[in-house]
Amino acid sequence: MxxxxxxxxxxxxxxxxxxxxxxxxxxxxxxxxxxxxxxMRVYGGSAFRLDDHLDRLDRSAEHLRIELPSATxxxxxxxxxxxxxxxxxGGVLRVYVTGGTDPRKPGTDNRIVAxxxxxxxxxxxxxxxxxxxxxxxxxxxxxxxxxxTLSYGPNLAATIKARSRGFDDAALVGAGDVVLEGPTxxxxxxxxxxxxxxxxxxxxLASITREATIxxxxxxxxxxxxxxxxxxxxxxxxxxxxxxxVREVLPAVAVGERTLEPxxxxxxxxxxxxxxxxxETE
Length: 282
What we know:
This protein is α+β, with helices and mostly antiparallel strands. It folds into two domains: 9-117, Aminotransferase class 4, branched-chain amino acid transferase, N-terminal domain (D-amino Acid Aminotransferase, Chain A, domain 1, 2-Layer Sandwich); 126-281, Alpha-Beta Barrel (D-amino Acid Aminotransferase, Chain A, domain 2), CATH 3.20.10. It has seven helices and 14 strands. The strands form two sheets. Strands 7, 8, 9, 10, 11, 12, 13 and 14 form an eight-stranded mixed beta sheet that branches. Strands 2-1-6-5-3-4 form a six-stranded antiparallel beta sheet. Helix 2 crosses helix 3 (71-82) and helix 5 packs across helix 7.
């Protein structure tokens, strides 16, 4: 079994040994990055907010004009894979939908791949470089607006650049100095005791962890502001944190040249998020 998986890989529902699992080199998912995906945390043997992730996968596939199996079928495949994490406490369930072998008819002979990865080492905090993202949708609409596609090259390049400059990852800024998101996470910060996070109308990813964190904030009586914030707002924040499937709610201890301390509001949000997960996956 591959060290990167916790069990067999399902391809169109059929189990394959991880070392033998493959996708055609003629698939436009491989050749052109045409396809979509989801990643979700598995706690014990349960995927957190599985239905929300599958709803987003369906929206992504619709943008790409790829027809998916029924939600019932996809849920069954994901549940089978998630249960492989029961003995080890969890992992990251990844689902990839390839574009198929005919660009004139997306979805032709395509593959839906699902597997469970071990949870990577997660730091206690992150250092964020602030980088311009001229490739980001940044409020502009296109055929793929809202889709979580396989085309993550620019995102990965931003992370690599940030790491080359001594940071862990990047906070992306768009035209007019508007704060967007990270390459694989949503951004949040605290100002005057309020949780601030960029609004979805900048066409940042509609993150499921972000939405859950907003729910936690509201349950704690923390006011949430979703607006078009500027770089200066982020740099002036009292606390900064990232939100993602793998990292959950994680404090930032540097944003550009500014250093920060993990703060009490971020800690409350993180603890509340853990409580929400426990209530939904027990």
